[in-house]
Amino acid sequence: MEDDTAGTARLGDAAADVLRRNDLGHLTVAAPELYPHQWSWDTAFIAIGLSHLSVSRAIIEMSSLLTAQWRRGMIPHIVFDTAPGYFPGPERWRTAVASDAPAGVRTSGICQPPVHSVAVARILDQARRRGGADRRAAEDFLTESIDGWLAWHRWLATSRDPEGSGLVEIHHSWESGMDNSPRWDAPYSRVDAGEMEPFTRNDTTHVTDAAERPTDAEYRRYIWLVDQMVAARYDEEAIRRTIDFRVADVFASALLALSSEILAELAAGAGRHRDARDMEEIAARFRSGVIAAVSPRSGLAQDRDLRTGAWLPTATIGGFAPLLCGGDAAVLRRQRELLLGPEWCGHPDLRHAVPPSTSPTSPEFRPRQYWRGPQWPVITWLFGWAARRRGDEALEGQLREESLRQLGDLRFAEYYEPFTGEALGSRWQSWTAAVTLDWLAS
Ligand code: 2M8
Q1: Which of 174, 207, 430 to probe ligand 1 with, by most ligand atoms within 8 A of CB?
Q2: Cα-to-centroid distance, 322 and ligand 1 (Å)
Q3: What average pLDDT does the chain have?
Q4: For residue 94, what pLDDT is reported?
Q5: For ligand 1, atom 17: residue with the closest CA
Q6: Cα of 71 to ligand 1 centre, how many Å?
Q7: What is the pLDDT of residue 442?
Q8: Would you say the pTM of this structure is higher than 0.70?
Q9: What would the 3-class secondary structure string for the chain be?
């Protein structure tokens, strides 16, 4: 049998190879066939992985995303490259109708969770450890890009929380990053996709089994919402008045709180004290919003359907949002216990003790279907990283070790079947390879 060091080296080489193969020079595609463009939150994780290979390449990745930033601050969820074959492409998003879309770059018209300052901080740490030219490049990058990140957070805190509730409002489940999670079943049951321009999906041709992807009925609703946003010319107020999907996303809110706390530290380090205070305020507001959304009964944080006012109690990984942003020691203690307990990582039938996207004890759990049950290494990484930031090295260590065992199949899958460990969805997924590199480096 291969010894540990050889196995680790092989895993690291294979992960680096995935990033190299998915690299177009100016951006890294999220996955070679299924996702041949740049995705917003994928970019942050990819840059974290790249920072272990080349600080300057990691900086290019983040800078290239920022060139697609909309004028009011939104970072779009997809920046399209030239490859054909992804649906919906720029011709369906029609972002030219928007008054604040950037010129000269083709993007989608929605956003994804704000994890970018986690990447900026990680790149800076790496660069400072290396010193010399890397350090200078990363510090220059922070100076040049900080206004972009600040504008992004301010846009989220105003346009997506105009009433100051402390929760980020989303208008499409793609904005959550967890597209078909049962978190969204109730709000989607009220989306009645009517007559629409016909379309053909491409995604199902790139996975072994189409049942690992969302259903056609789900896709009709996804595209219906895109068309509704185009009709509203991507005007946030008009969208709020007319769209069939308005949900307060507790996971994105926790990430905004966490990332704003980090951005405040970065701003303070760059001598931008007023900006640092603004970011601290945003962090505090969204942290409180997340804690207020915790159900005393289940101990999990809940999303909220803003069209009906109903809280959404489904037991998904989104419910552990407080473990990302902190804010209440008792809530965190209970969540840690829950996460490691039999309904989650401690479920006796799991192949690897990392969190499934939906609890295996929930009636909505589907072990092979995308965000309805499989384990996502990138999500495990986020919880591990946040745990370490809180000083919970034990939790981080456990999640890392289990994940590295899971990734030992060298497929770098998009997601994994929780009971068998089978690789599902896309292979050679960039963010999976990237978090592998980060785990190996710690
Ligand atoms: C998945 O989402 C895209 C739409 O944005 C898709 O299914 O076509 C999600 O897992 C999302 O979180 C991720 O960012 C994206 C690219 O990896 O794929």
Answers
A1: 174
A2: 23
A3: 97
A4: 98
A5: 30
A6: 24
A7: 87
A8: yes
A9: CCCHHHHHHHHHHHHHHHHHHCECCCCECCCCCCCCCEEHHHHHHHHHHHCCCCHHHHHHHHHHHHCCCCCCCCCCCEECCCCCCCCCCHHHHCHHHCCCCCCCCCECCCCCCCCHHHHHHHHHHHHHHHCHHHHHHHHHHHHHHHHHHHHHHHHHHHHCCCCCCCCEEECCHHHHCCCCCHHHHHHHHCCCCCCCCCCCCCHHHHCCCHHHCCCHHHHHHHHHHHHHHHHCCCCHHHHHHHCCCCEEEHHHHHHHHHHHHHHHHHHHHCCCHHHHHHHHHHHHHHHHHHHHCECCCCCCECEEECCCCCEECCCEHHHHCHHHHCCCHHHHHHHHHHHHCCCCCCCCCCCCCCCECECCCCCCCCCCCHHHCCECHHHHHHHHHHHHHHCCHHHHHHHHHHHHHHHHHCCCCCEECCCCCCEECCCCCHHHHHHHHHHHHC
In this prediction, residue 2 carries a pLDDT of 55
Enumerate the active-site residues.
179, 414
| Confidence bin at 1 (pLDDT 50/70/90) | very low
The tens digit of pLDDT for each residue in 163-193 reads 999 999 999 999 999 999 999 999 999 999 9
What pLDDT is recorded for position 328?
A: 98
Atom 4 (ligand 1) nearest CA? 174
Return the residue whose CA atom lies nearest to atom 13 of ligand 1.
Answer: 177
